[in-house]
Amino acid sequence: MKLAKILPFTRVLMDMAVKEGDIAVDATVGNGHDTLYLAERVGEKGRVFGFDIQQEAIAATSARLQEHHLLERVTLFQASHDQLIEKIPDVYHGRITGAIFNLGYLPGGDKRIVTKPESTIRAIEQLLQIMKKEGIIVLVVYHGHPEGVIERDALLDYVREMDQKRVHVLKYAFINQKNNPPFIIAIEKR
Ligand code: SAM
Protein backbone atom coordinates (compact mmCIF):
# COMPACT_ATOMS: atom_id res chain seq x y z
CA MET A 1 0.00 0.00 0.00
CA LYS A 2 1.36 3.41 -0.98
CA LEU A 3 -0.99 5.49 1.16
CA ALA A 4 0.52 6.14 4.59
CA LYS A 5 -1.10 4.08 7.33
CA ILE A 6 -2.31 5.96 10.37
CA LEU A 7 0.71 5.70 12.67
CA PRO A 8 3.28 6.44 9.93
CA PHE A 9 1.18 9.44 8.88
CA THR A 10 1.41 10.88 12.42
CA ARG A 11 5.19 10.88 11.89
CA VAL A 12 4.83 12.57 8.49
CA LEU A 13 2.89 15.36 10.17
CA MET A 14 5.26 15.63 13.14
CA ASP A 15 8.27 15.67 10.80
CA MET A 16 6.74 18.66 9.01
CA ALA A 17 6.35 20.57 12.23
CA VAL A 18 9.14 19.51 14.60
CA LYS A 19 12.77 20.28 13.76
CA GLU A 20 16.04 19.94 15.63
CA GLY A 21 16.21 22.19 18.65
CA ASP A 22 12.42 22.48 18.94
CA ILE A 23 10.14 21.89 21.90
CA ALA A 24 7.56 19.10 21.56
CA VAL A 25 4.83 17.58 23.72
CA ASP A 26 3.67 13.99 24.07
CA ALA A 27 0.32 14.47 25.80
CA THR A 28 -0.27 10.72 26.42
CA VAL A 29 3.09 9.00 26.81
CA GLY A 30 1.75 5.47 27.46
CA ASN A 31 4.58 3.05 26.70
CA GLY A 32 6.71 5.89 25.33
CA HIS A 33 6.97 5.10 21.63
CA ASP A 34 6.04 8.62 20.51
CA THR A 35 8.07 10.19 23.32
CA LEU A 36 11.16 8.36 22.11
CA TYR A 37 10.50 9.39 18.52
CA LEU A 38 10.05 13.05 19.56
CA ALA A 39 13.19 12.96 21.72
CA GLU A 40 15.19 11.75 18.72
CA ARG A 41 13.55 14.33 16.50
CA VAL A 42 14.28 17.41 18.66
CA GLY A 43 17.92 16.44 19.09
CA GLU A 44 20.33 17.45 21.84
CA LYS A 45 19.28 21.09 21.90
CA GLY A 46 15.56 20.40 21.94
CA ARG A 47 13.23 19.31 24.72
CA VAL A 48 10.17 17.07 25.05
CA PHE A 49 7.50 17.34 27.74
CA GLY A 50 5.50 14.17 28.34
CA PHE A 51 2.29 13.66 30.30
CA ASP A 52 0.41 10.63 31.58
CA ILE A 53 -1.84 10.13 34.58
CA GLN A 54 -0.61 6.57 35.19
CA GLN A 55 2.57 5.84 37.13
CA GLU A 56 2.95 2.65 35.06
CA ALA A 57 3.13 4.68 31.84
CA ILE A 58 5.65 7.16 33.26
CA ALA A 59 7.83 4.24 34.43
CA ALA A 60 7.63 2.44 31.07
CA THR A 61 8.45 5.63 29.15
CA SER A 62 11.28 6.53 31.46
CA ALA A 63 12.79 3.04 31.02
CA ARG A 64 12.47 3.22 27.24
CA LEU A 65 14.17 6.63 27.12
CA GLN A 66 16.92 5.50 29.47
CA GLU A 67 17.60 2.48 27.29
CA HIS A 68 18.22 4.88 24.40
CA HIS A 69 20.18 7.38 26.54
CA LEU A 70 17.63 10.10 25.80
CA LEU A 71 16.04 10.64 29.19
CA GLU A 72 17.86 13.90 29.83
CA ARG A 73 16.15 15.72 26.97
CA VAL A 74 12.68 14.75 28.23
CA THR A 75 10.65 15.96 31.22
CA LEU A 76 7.90 13.55 32.27
CA PHE A 77 4.93 14.57 34.39
CA GLN A 78 2.58 12.15 36.08
CA ALA A 79 -0.26 14.58 35.54
CA SER A 80 -3.22 15.15 33.27
CA HIS A 81 -2.41 16.90 30.00
CA ASP A 82 -4.91 19.61 30.90
CA GLN A 83 -2.31 20.88 33.38
CA LEU A 84 0.27 21.44 30.69
CA ILE A 85 0.17 25.22 30.77
CA GLU A 86 1.16 25.26 34.45
CA LYS A 87 3.60 22.36 34.22
CA ILE A 88 5.62 23.49 31.20
CA PRO A 89 7.89 26.33 32.35
CA ASP A 90 7.10 29.76 30.86
CA VAL A 91 10.48 29.94 29.15
CA TYR A 92 9.29 27.23 26.72
CA HIS A 93 5.97 28.91 25.92
CA GLY A 94 5.85 30.10 22.33
CA ARG A 95 8.46 27.53 21.25
CA ILE A 96 6.38 24.33 21.01
CA THR A 97 6.11 23.19 17.38
CA GLY A 98 4.48 19.78 17.74
CA ALA A 99 2.23 17.82 20.09
CA ILE A 100 0.81 14.35 19.89
CA PHE A 101 -2.13 12.65 21.59
CA ASN A 102 -2.71 8.92 21.30
CA LEU A 103 -6.18 8.63 22.77
CA GLY A 104 -7.81 5.68 24.51
CA TYR A 105 -6.25 3.25 26.98
CA LEU A 106 -2.71 2.10 27.70
CA PRO A 107 -1.93 -0.98 25.57
CA GLY A 108 -1.40 -3.87 27.98
CA GLY A 109 -2.70 -1.74 30.87
CA ASP A 110 -6.00 -1.04 32.63
CA LYS A 111 -8.59 -0.59 29.87
CA ARG A 112 -10.88 1.32 32.26
CA ILE A 113 -8.43 4.24 32.34
CA VAL A 114 -9.07 6.16 29.14
CA THR A 115 -8.65 9.69 27.87
CA LYS A 116 -11.73 11.89 28.29
CA PRO A 117 -12.99 14.46 25.79
CA GLU A 118 -13.27 17.31 28.34
CA SER A 119 -9.63 17.12 29.40
CA THR A 120 -8.42 16.41 25.86
CA ILE A 121 -10.18 19.56 24.64
CA ARG A 122 -8.83 21.64 27.56
CA ALA A 123 -5.32 20.42 26.71
CA ILE A 124 -5.75 21.36 23.04
CA GLU A 125 -6.90 24.85 24.06
CA GLN A 126 -3.89 25.25 26.34
CA LEU A 127 -1.52 24.05 23.62
CA LEU A 128 -2.95 26.54 21.14
CA GLN A 129 -2.15 29.31 23.63
CA ILE A 130 1.49 28.32 24.09
CA MET A 131 2.42 26.83 20.72
CA LYS A 132 4.39 28.56 18.02
CA LYS A 133 2.53 29.62 14.87
CA GLU A 134 2.38 26.72 12.37
CA GLY A 135 2.80 24.27 15.25
CA ILE A 136 0.83 21.06 14.69
CA ILE A 137 -1.23 19.02 17.16
CA VAL A 138 -1.88 15.43 16.08
CA LEU A 139 -4.60 13.35 17.71
CA VAL A 140 -4.95 9.64 16.99
CA VAL A 141 -8.57 8.77 17.75
CA TYR A 142 -9.40 5.19 18.75
CA HIS A 143 -13.15 4.61 18.63
CA GLY A 144 -13.38 0.83 18.86
CA HIS A 145 -14.39 0.97 22.55
CA PRO A 146 -17.56 2.59 23.99
CA GLU A 147 -15.86 5.61 25.61
CA GLY A 148 -13.85 6.08 22.42
CA VAL A 149 -17.09 6.63 20.50
CA ILE A 150 -18.10 9.39 22.93
CA GLU A 151 -14.65 10.98 22.73
CA ARG A 152 -14.63 10.78 18.92
CA ASP A 153 -17.99 12.51 18.60
CA ALA A 154 -17.15 15.23 21.13
CA LEU A 155 -13.81 15.93 19.46
CA LEU A 156 -15.25 16.04 15.97
CA ASP A 157 -17.99 18.43 17.14
CA TYR A 158 -15.35 20.61 18.78
CA VAL A 159 -12.84 20.74 15.90
CA ARG A 160 -15.49 21.32 13.23
CA GLU A 161 -16.47 24.52 15.03
CA MET A 162 -12.93 25.86 15.41
CA ASP A 163 -12.43 29.22 13.74
CA GLN A 164 -10.60 28.74 10.44
CA LYS A 165 -8.82 32.05 11.00
CA ARG A 166 -7.27 30.52 14.09
CA VAL A 167 -6.47 26.96 12.98
CA HIS A 168 -6.43 24.59 10.02
CA VAL A 169 -8.02 21.23 10.85
CA LEU A 170 -7.43 18.00 8.93
CA LYS A 171 -9.04 14.59 9.28
CA TYR A 172 -7.12 11.63 7.83
CA ALA A 173 -9.07 8.37 7.80
CA PHE A 174 -9.47 5.17 5.84
CA ILE A 175 -13.18 5.10 5.19
CA ASN A 176 -13.67 1.58 3.77
CA GLN A 177 -11.98 -0.43 6.54
CA LYS A 178 -13.90 -2.65 8.96
CA ASN A 179 -13.69 -2.64 12.79
CA ASN A 180 -13.49 1.10 13.49
CA PRO A 181 -9.88 1.77 12.51
CA PRO A 182 -8.22 4.71 14.27
CA PHE A 183 -8.00 8.02 12.43
CA ILE A 184 -6.10 11.26 12.74
CA ILE A 185 -7.20 14.77 13.54
CA ALA A 186 -4.45 17.32 12.95
CA ILE A 187 -4.71 20.96 14.04
CA GLU A 188 -2.27 23.59 12.79
CA LYS A 189 -2.08 26.89 14.64
CA ARG A 190 -2.28 29.86 12.25
N1 SAM B 1 1.49 6.81 22.66
C1 SAM B 1 1.48 5.80 23.66
C2 SAM B 1 2.53 4.73 23.38
O1 SAM B 1 3.43 4.97 22.58
O2 SAM B 1 2.48 3.67 24.00
C3 SAM B 1 0.11 5.19 23.89
C4 SAM B 1 -0.83 6.08 24.64
S1 SAM B 1 -2.27 5.24 25.26
C5 SAM B 1 -3.22 4.95 23.82
C6 SAM B 1 -3.18 6.51 26.10
C7 SAM B 1 -2.55 6.98 27.38
O3 SAM B 1 -3.22 8.17 27.80
C8 SAM B 1 -2.65 6.01 28.56
O4 SAM B 1 -1.37 5.65 29.01
C9 SAM B 1 -3.42 6.79 29.63
O5 SAM B 1 -2.97 6.58 30.93
C10 SAM B 1 -3.16 8.22 29.19
N2 SAM B 1 -4.13 9.22 29.71
C11 SAM B 1 -5.46 9.07 29.96
N3 SAM B 1 -5.98 10.24 30.38
C12 SAM B 1 -4.96 11.14 30.40
C13 SAM B 1 -4.87 12.52 30.76
N4 SAM B 1 -5.94 13.21 31.16
N5 SAM B 1 -3.66 13.12 30.67
C14 SAM B 1 -2.57 12.43 30.24
N6 SAM B 1 -2.59 11.14 29.88
C15 SAM B 1 -3.77 10.49 29.96
Describe the protein.
The chain has 190 residues and is an alpha/beta fold. The protein has a single domain (6-189), classed as Vaccinia Virus protein VP39 (Rossmann fold). The protein contains six helices and seven strands, in the order H-E-H-E-H-E-H-E-H-E-H-E-E. A seven-stranded mixed beta sheet has the order 3-2-1-4-5-7-6, with helices on both faces. Strand 1, helix 2 (33-42) and strand 2 form a beta-alpha-beta unit. Helix 5 (117-130) packs parallel to helix 6. The longest helix has 15 residues, at 146-160. It is globular and about 40 Å long. The mean pLDDT is 97. Bound molecules: S-adenosylmethionine (SAM). Residues 28, 30-34, 51-54, 57, 80-81, 102, 104, 106-107, 113, 115, 119 line the site of S-adenosylmethionine (SAM). Residues 28, 30-34, 51-54, 57, 80-81, 102, 104, 106-107, 113, 115, 119 line the site of S-adenosylmethionine.
Tally of separate helices = 6
Count of spatially separate domains: 1
- Based on secondary structure, the structural category is alpha/beta
Radius of gyration: 15 Å
The portion of residues assigned to helices is 25-40%
- Are any ligands bound, and if so which? S-adenosylmethionine
Order of helices and strands: HEHEHEHEHEHEE
CATH fold-level topology = Rossmann fold
Report, as a whole number of angstroms, the end-to-end distance. 32 Å
Q: How many beta strands in the DSSP annotation?
A: 7
- Mean pLDDT across the residues is 97
CATH C-level class = Alpha Beta
Beta-strand content? 15-25%
Q: Identify the overall geometry.
A: globular
Spatial order of strands in the largest sheet: 3-2-1-4-5-7-6
Main beta-sheet strand count, sense and barrel state: 7 strands, mixed
- What CATH architecture would you give? 3-Layer(aba) Sandwich
CATH-wise, what's the superfamily? Vaccinia Virus protein VP39
Unreliable residue runs: none
